[in-house]
Amino acid sequence: MTKPPSSDFDAIVIGAGHNGLVTAAYLAREGLSTLLIEARSEVGGTAASDHFAGARVNICNCDHLTFRTTPVAEELNLSRYGLSYINVEPPQVNLDWSSQTPWELWHDVEQTVESIAHSHPDSVDGYRRFARAAIPVAKLILDASSQPPTRGSLLSSVIRKGGRGVTTMLRMSRMSAADVMREFFTNEAIIGPAMVEGPVVWGLSPETPGTGLGAVAFALRHVAHVGRPVGGSGALPEALKQSFLQSGGLLRTGTKVVGIVCEGNSVRAVQTSDGATVTARIVVSACDPHRTFVKWLKNPPARAQSLVERWTATPSGEGYESKIDAVTTEPSSLLGRAPVASTIIVSPSLAELHRGAQLMQEGRTMPRMALLANSPSVTDSTLAPSGQHVFSLESLYTPYSFTDGWTSKDEPERWLRQFATLAQPNFMDTITDWRVMTPADYETEFHLPKGHATSFAGGPLAAFMGTNPELTRYHTPIKGLYLTGAATFPGAGVWGASGRNTALTVLKEMR
Ligand SMILES: Cc1cc2nc3c(=O)[nH]c(=O)nc-3n(C[C@H](O)[C@H](O)[C@H](O)COP(=O)(O)OP(=O)(O)OC[C@H]3O[C@@H](n4cnc5c(N)ncnc54)[C@H](O)[C@@H]3O)c2cc1C
Known about the structure:
By secondary structure, the protein is of the alpha/beta class. It has 19 helices and 19 strands.
């Protein structure tokens, strides 16, 4: 793999979120001279950790599940660079605002059923039926995501799984997530938290047709183990960075990409905000497709015209996730129970969630919020100084275009006080300092346009069909230009599969 003498690098990767890091590390490992350009001063994007009030907090909620189903950690030798995981058991405690009767979702189905038998006995049979139907679908999704998708690779996944789950997956993928869950349950204490983790986390109403696979969120937790890197989510991107640098890669942080230059039918160079132009024969954008194809492309060839037109006509999304990080004198506990590290999902009713999606479009939030809370320092003492804890509260359907604006902390404080009604009586007094990250902050600090964290919405069927090849095959009509990241298959989450799939695609097409 020799580079043409006129190129500064074999490959340039734009954006050092965990997906860009994965792609860059695989390319460097194969001997390609690789430059990774990151706008922030630190790597990791929304998978990073941050210092706050003397503690270490996570930008994302920090439950890593899908990443642990990939071979990335092993192939890039990440344990050598400090990555180790703490398993979280139970991975989740679920609760709805109406019944306020929590139940535990364990990795083990029977342990979960035991918890449901205790708290919501009407849903025991339904949960067993749900697990039987959804677990094969979850396994199929994870298997199909573990390699660059082609019709052949996806059919191989189906054959490897003995065809199990295919019919259910196809049927579910056409339904709404709420309808999928209604086939198994009438109790919203079971349905609601699954919706919060599925379509609501994607910014959609659970009643939206085509969101049905969002209902397998519980099943994923029975198939794979939720874990958190020791030292916080950012330990993963830090280990990826070390792996990349050890393979000879070059990282440039604090540098914003402003253009991708084409020459003839090929990509030629990347322009940065400091006025530099760096040449390479391969450019991988690990940023959102809208900016990549609409804002950054300079002199695109005629063969890319329809791609550019399609993305110009695609409205760019608005962010809807916010997260509070607090430092506390004791871990939070729920409804008089002992403190746990598990994520606590708090769900409004289906009707409230559906209405919440409409309110979000009007720039408003829900009266009773959809929340994901945890105290990761319960199991990881490295996160906060002795005698202190970290509390994390993710809030959903919090629109970028919030009518009251995000400069005041009144609205986030309302979420904190709302969670306090479920926690130990002195919860608010345990907080020594807190901050909030809203979509406005994700825009200014993480370079996410309108604070929107992109996500591939097509599902395995779109990947099978090869719909929008830049999202499902990672390549573009411009020779040498590739796309990776959460916008591409298999989508959002700290997963790394799209980063790895893209690297494998680049290497295959080079050969
Ligand atoms: C509040 C919140 C909670 C979440 N919780 C979880 C969770 O618990 N579990 C989970 O699995 N997932 C979670 N996620 C989702 C997950 O964090 C993301 O899907 C994932 O990290 C996206 O990774 P990425 O590498 O594709 O993109 P990003 O992390 O967005 O990385 C893109 C990178 O590109 C850089 N960049 C942007 N513009 C430029 C430019 N012009 N020039 C150079 N660089 C640029 C950015 O600075 C960034 O570093 C959460 C997300 C949010 C917002």
